[in-house]
Amino acid sequence: MSGLLGSATPASEKRRKFRRGLESGRLLRFPGAFSPLVAKLVAEIGFDGVYVSGAVLSADLGLPDIGLTTLTEVVGRGGQIASATDLPTFIDADTGFGEPMSAARTVTLLEDAGLAGLHLEDQVNPKRCGHLDGKAVVETSEMVKRLRAAVAARRDPNFIICARTDAAGIEGIPAAIDRAKAYADAGADLIFTEALHTPADFEQFREAVGVPLLANMTEFGKSELLTAGQLSEIGYNAVIYPVTTLRLAMHAVEVGLREISSAGTQSGLVDQMQHRSRLYELLRYTDYNQFDSDIYNFSLQGATQ
Fold it and tell me: Which pathway does UniProt place it in (predicted)?
């Protein structure tokens, strides 16, 4: 029964694992998952953790990534994904959904939901995707208040609070580095360096900032897609692939739907589909069946009606 209906690993242990990983000197890889089922596959393949992207969550709701999702929606979906595996799950909390007190409540609710950590960004409200132009950032002092409130609300000291700075493309890398240092001084455990362009940009951050760093390897954005080996060599501690699984899935879905529309049948697509038996394996149907058999193994004898 262990881990059948939810994670067998307590959230506190997942958080310890995340913190130890950031201190290990090796690169942690967190692919994005848009559903608990995708998270199960991430875990089975052997990644270090699961990431829940705000852009993906909003897209899955049919909305653009411009700050329209609510704290309730993010906590609900994040909790579902976190409970699906024994891996630490790290989530995008946008700007904290309001003022510093709102950021504090965001930490409390995500901690209760079983997440291992979150990141808060220094954009103004409403935020926008980090790889779009036209972003604006708040004053460093305002982001510091946001982070201090989040740190103060944390009850589990291993819950990771990450500060994302979008300032590199607005104020330049030196200013973004200054912000990163201020955010670390405010208690951030991890710095998310958003929308850097080249390996040299990542190296510049690594040389200047002493706390763990997170890279975002999103497709079709401003950052060159660096390999895990390159990021590890530069000295980054974690990398996320936020939208990759959604883009793969949506491309396949669109191709399939157009085929059905034009051909009138999905028969030509069957070889491209995950087989039912593979889905059942991922969902552990056999274990559920055994659980049922062990519980409901009685028979009625001598019944008169």
Answer: Organic acid metabolism; propanoate degradation
How confident is the prediction along the chain (305 residues), in pLDDT tens digits per residue?
567 888 999 999 999 999 999 999 999 999 999 999 999 999 999 999 999 999 999 999 999 988 899 999 999 999 999 999 999 999 999 999 999 999 999 999 999 999 999 999 999 876 666 555 567 899 999 999 999 999 999 999 999 999 999 999 899 999 999 999 999 999 999 999 998 999 999 999 999 999 999 999 999 998 999 999 999 999 999 999 999 999 999 999 999 999 999 999 999 999 999 999 999 999 998 888 887 776 666 555 654 45
Handedness of CA 22, 2, 106, 149 (dihedral sign): negative
19 sits in which H/E element: helix 11-22
Cis before 126 (ω within 30): yes
Helix extents (H) in 61-198: 71-82, 100-112, 140-153, 168-171, 173-185
Q: Is residue 278 one of the residues assigned to a domain?
A: no
Cα 209 from Cα 188, distance rounded (Å)? 12
163 is a domain residue: yes
Contact at 8 Å (CB) between 188 and 163?
yes
**What is the number of structural domains in the chain?**
1
Q: Looking at the domain assignment, is residue 274 inside a domain?
A: no
Between the two ends of the chain, the Cα-to-Cα distance in Å is: 34
Q: Which residues does the annotation mark as catalytic?
A: 51, 65, 92, 94, 119, 121, 129, 164, 194, 216
The range of the structural domain enclosing residue 129 comes to: 11-250
Are the C-beta atoms of residues 90 and 103 closer than 8 Å to each other?
A: no
